[in-house]
Specification:
Helicase, Ruva Protein, domain 3, Rossmann fold, 44% helix, two-stranded antiparallel sheet
Length: 306
């Protein structure tokens, strides 16, 4: 399926680093076009950190990586006001959150208190330090990686934190052809060191500004509302999707349509982004046991035509 020319350049650039992962790259771009934050859950060594760095490089964004550990404190992320005796005043020493793309690496290895330090930044693009509010640079994105919860030393993200991630992706193992190229000596990180921005800040801002203009017909919005209503009232989930999730689903579907050079929304666009938008919100809510696949449950029980 043909992409928007600017999106094609970005996807191709990132694809030179993250080999054989066209679908996750497109989904990540849709997430960022919709001004959302991205959570990547996978085993160590799958390329999560490299993926985030490649996205920042291709988009020309200021990039900061924070390694989350059990002893990390909120001030280590946000910064602090420190007294300077020579000037007899307090001065803000900004933390790594003052960037355009923040990589929160292994976010679930830190305590819930430290995880919650990002809530205001993710929702309002600002942070409060000692009673003063400070705006963050624009655009501002958080890409967080986490290891599966069965691994040692991990803390589950609370529902309020999960809901602020517009999308969750998993990269998975490479295909046989890609892995063979890696075994033969191909080094994607070497490509990353030479990766340059393929869109200007203005071009990226223009793309983002186009997302709300993608037309969503009444019938498509009816379909989204039936999906959301099923999650809340079918009895299969504890409380269902939040209004934030519902709005995010439409915005991400609009971004997906824009990526594919369309000016209107199709039910297929909603279906394409449904799993990464809703699964991390609903997986722990499923009732009845068995394999947790919330998106499939919604798709199987909610008709497109009503």
């Amino acid at each position: 399926m043909a992409l928007n020319p600017a999106a094609e350049r970005i996807a191709a650039a990132v694809g030179r680093v993250l080999l054989g992962k066209d679908e996750p790259i497109r989904l990540a771009l849709a997430c960022m076009l919709a001004r959302g934050h991205l959570l990547i859950e996978d085993l160590p060594g799958m390329g999560k950190t490299t993926f985030a760095h490649a996205l920042a490089a291709a988009l020309g964004l200021a990039y900061t990586r924070v390694q989350f550990t059990s002893d990390l404190l909120p001030a280590d992320i946000l910064g602090a006001r420190i007294y300077e005796p020579g000037k007899q005043q307090f001065r803000l020493h900004p933390g790594p959150v003052f960037t355009q793309l923040l990589l929160a690496d292994e976010i679930n290895r830190s305590s819930p208190k430290t995880q919650s330090a990002l809530l205001e930044a993710m929702e309002e693009h600002q942070v409060s330090i000692d009673g003063e509010t400070h705006r963050l640079p624009e655009p501002f994105f958080v890409i967080a990686t986490q290891n599966p919860l069965h691994q040692a030393g991990t803390y589950p993200l609370p529902e309020s934190q999960l809901d602020r991630f517009l999308m969750q992706l998993s990269l998975g193992f490479p295909d046989a052809g890609t892995e063979r190229r890696l075994l033969e000596g191909l080094n994607p990180r070497a490509t990353l060191t030479t990766l340059e921005a393929v869109v200007s800040p203005g071009e990226w801002a223009d793309l983002q500004a186009c997302v709300p203009g993608i037309h969503a017909s009444a019938s498509v919005l009816d379909y989204v509302q039936r999906l959301v209503d099923f999650s809340r009232h079918s009895g299969r989930f504890q409380w269902g999707l939040s209004p934030r999730a519902a709005v995010g689903l439409v915005q991400t579907a609009r971004a997906w349509a824009l990526l594919h050079a369309r000016t209107h929304l199709l039910p297929e666009d909603v279906q394409a982004v449904l799993a990464p938008v809703v699964s991390h919100r609903l997986r722990q809510q499923m009732r009845g046991g068995g394999p947790a696949d919330p998106a499939r449950t919604l798709l199987e029980h909610v008709d497109v035509l009503g």
